[in-house]
Predict the structure.
Amino acid sequence: MGVSRLSGGAQMRKEINKQLVGWIRERARTSFGGDISLVAIYGSHINGTDQEWSDVDCYFIPKTDRGRAFGLDFILAGVGYDIFPLSWERLQGIAHLQEPLVPLVGDAVLLYSDSQEDTDRFQALQRELAACLADKAYCRRMCEERFYRAAAQRQMGDSGDFSTQRKCAGQLLLDGAEALAFHNGTYFHAGLKRHGQELEAMEKKPAGFLRRYRQVMEAESPGALQKASEDFLTCLGEFFGLPWKAVPGERPLPSGEKEENLAELSAWYEECSSLFCKLRVCREREQRELAFLSGVCLQRELDELAASYAVPAYALLEAYHWADLTPLVETADRIERDLVDRIVRSGGRIKRFASFPEFERAQL
């Protein structure tokens, strides 16, 4: 019963996303021709991992000031979508492995290009990415950078509540895993969704790496989390021939005056609502690793929000338990309701559409 329902939900989402992709392409061609250099999609819709909660991962490169208006955030049939701008300069940094967003270049498909010159420029970036991955010396430098970033997260995890410590430990896992990917001359093609499977498929990794990776997620106390994180870093550091204890950890800067008007957070919620949704699906499917990593991403968003806006410091990850995802989901649901209530009471308007025809009629 459950499998059939989820399968039907995935099929419905796939059809919605197919319609939306056509709408994005046509909007770029007719309403923004000459104002944007290109529109690209990547992620689950094109790599075959889309499910009932999958959005369309889409970005564009503005060519004029007017072109920035191509960006949109909205919620369609319960899933948040974010069509966001990138600059050519940032895309080049991604091609050079400077950000954990490599699929935006390596696995992206162009929906629209304003000129052959724009297409050629994008394809040149894809070649630069391939050259970086093939360059063992360059990958070694990027590997070391990610490893020391992971080590810094361990030091930062000494302060703060258990939720903050878990967030740092989760980022430690992500940075350490990316270091290992670069060591193998590759990157994570499916983002978080198949993170563990892609790690498992990597040929070169230390013995016991996956066990230590999961022990960080399974830790139920600050002491156990600290030990698991240190074991993970020690295992990885010995494999790379790199020390980690010598790395000083940075401390977060104190926040300044906070914005009281929460109406402008409507777009933030439209973009991040998918993270809340993913946690619910993870509980239904008992996807414990994905729930942890998605929770880390959501906690990071919530912490950044609390640093700038007059909202509570939500301690989401204190509710994570490897053996039972229900407390995590219930806590996330309470946080979501509270945030939405605060946004709406401040005058914010959240763009929600029950179906693609309703979305299309809105003429965004």
In short: The two ends are 37 Å apart (CA to CA). The mean pLDDT is 92. Strands lie at 36-42, 57-62, 72-76, 79-85, 109-113, 352-353.
